[in-house]
Amino acid sequence: MFNLTQPEIIIRLVAAIFVGGIIGFERERKSRPAGMKTHILVCIGACIIALIQCQLTSMTVDYNFAHPKIVGALSADTARLTAQVVSGIGFLGAGTIIMTNKTVKGLTTAASIWSVAGLGLALGYGYYLIAAFGTAIIFFSLTALAYLIPMGNINRLEIKLNEHQTTKFIKQVLKKFHIDIENTDVTIKRDEDGSRNYTIMYTLEVPRKVDTSELVFELSDNEQVDYVRLLE
């Protein structure tokens, strides 16, 4: 494992580009904060750290064999650099996580970055089977799993209206589209003439098959609704 030849080093680095590119392509295709380039760089970086760890360990072993009288004077921790990758990659993951109005986004991308770092370490150490099956499982989890286990998307719906009774109409429309309301925030403003304007922010679980543009159009048909915006 530790005595690396130049072809082995090249193969592992190229494999890291390929593995990081596969996961990164899926994220970039969905316009996520971290795309192909980020995942490739993370995977290559982790692979390089693992390769350096291998070389350091190899040099230490060779030195001890060459100087048996001072065996133990020079040692190498075979997991120290690897441990720093696992903990240090967190700053990238944190940069992809966004929390707004009680909604958290970017967790999946953060997890994919962390997972790709693990794949890079596996390749750097030469664990090709672990890297191959790990890549396949991660890619499956990001793509096919959503279709096998039906899960709705979490969206936020902002509606401005001038009549509180209109909320009944809104709930009827949401029920028609089989949309569940997870949370509701209401802001009330009073105009100069004394009339009230309501801004309602719904957090919704929207089934994947729902045409969101049709939902927005149907809500905006009501005369009491001044403004409709759907946020992903």
Automatic annotation (TrEMBL):
The UniProt record lists the keyword Nucleus: no
Compartment(s) where it occurs, according to its Swiss-Prot or TrEMBL record: Cell membrane
Keyword Ribonucleoprotein carried by entry: no
Domain called MgtC/SapB/SrpB/YhiD N-terminal: residue spans: 13-147
Main location: membrane
TM segment ranges: 6-26, 38-61, 81-99, 106-123, 129-149
InterPro entries in the record: MgtC/SapB/SrpB/YhiD_fam, MgtC_SapB_SrpB_YhiD_N
Cellular component terms per the entry's GO annotation: plasma membrane
Keyword set, alphabetical order: Cell membrane, Membrane, Transmembrane, Transmembrane helix
Topological relation to the membrane, as annotated: Multi-pass membrane protein
PANTHER family named in the record: MAGNESIUM TRANSPORTER YHID-RELATED (PTHR33778:SF1), PROTEIN MGTC (PTHR33778)
Sequence similarity: Belongs to the MgtC/SapB family.
Full protein name: MgtC family protein
Organism field: Lentilactobacillus sunkii DSM 19904
